[in-house]
Design brief:
By secondary structure, the chain is of the alpha/beta class. The protein has ten helices and ten strands. The model has no long low-confidence stretch (mean pLDDT 94).
């Protein structure tokens, strides 16, 4: 695990593309406990009051959340910059007639749409993989209707560094934006030799980006597994590992 300097967005995209099929397999096989028992329930809870008429899955990755959203009945567009991830997503959502996938950076997609058409946008565990947070959030803001919801999940800026063990490294400074290279792993599986990059940034950067894009923060959640679910993990949860935010477009 190390900080990285000068890495381009295209390089980060290729990293995630290389593990797309492996990630889809982890989720389908029930190995990703946090997706199944923490993140997905949290997203569902935060979207109970949302309008599912027109849904954007920004940074949809392998389409796992997209498939869950399809049950809401509205039209759903999954957008991701990774071609391989989109291919996996299309396979995962085969048969879902209300789902469309687009291979594109969210900024490019928003520029192409040029109108507010979505009543709900989701960014599940994707904003930590973009180098320009402000541009990505601003793009979502341009295509969400006034009154529409934007639900975001991210690694917890305060506690993820402790969980992953780099909080006390000499190079780490909580207040700085730091791209970090590391071997990808989840609690029940490790993709040996598969490096991915996520960006640590302080919480205020996320909030400022959302406010600047015209969103009002409506709810903030630090999801934790139930006691029964926590027993499935190899390590006890000492603190929240993720953060979820619901915003409303003004």
């Amino acid at each position: 695990m190390k900080p990285t300097v000068g890495k381009k967005q295209s390089e980060i995209t290729r990293e995630w593309g290389r593990i797309a099929r492996l990630r889809a397999g982890q989720i389908k096989e029930g190995k990703d406990l946090s997706y199944t028992f923490v993140l997905l329930p949290c997203v569902k809870e935060l979207t109970i009051e949302s309008d599912f008429s027109s849904v954007l899955d920004a940074g949809c990755g392998t389409g796992m959340i997209t498939r869950e959203l399809a049950d809401g009945g509205g039209n759903i567009v999954g957008v991701d910059i990774s071609e391989e991830s989109i291919r996996v997503a299309q396979e995962s959502c085969r048969g879902c007639r209300n789902v469309e996938f687009v291979t594109s950076a969210i900024e490019v997609y928003a520029e192409k749409i040029k109108k507010q058409i979505f009543t709900l946008a989701i960014a599940n565990m994707s904003l930590m993989t973009v180098l320009n947070l402000e541009e990505s959030v601003e793009a979502v803001g341009k295509i969400v209707k006034p009154g529409g919801h934007f639900v975001v999940t991210i690694t917890h800026p305060c506690f993820w560094p402790l969980y992953w063990g780099y909080a006390f490294e000499e190079w780490f400074n909580y207040s700085e934006e730091i791209p970090i290279e590391a071997e990808f792993m989840i609690s029940l599986d490790r993709l040996s030799g598969r490096v991915t990059t996520h960006v640590h940034r302080p919480l205020n950067r996320y909030i400022e980006a959302m406010v600047k894009a015209g969103f009002t923060i409506d709810k903030l959640v630090e999801p934790m597994p139930s006691w029964e679910i926590e027993k499935k993990y190899p390590k006890k949860w000492e603190y929240p590992r993720f953060l979820a935010i619901r915003c409303i477009k003004s």
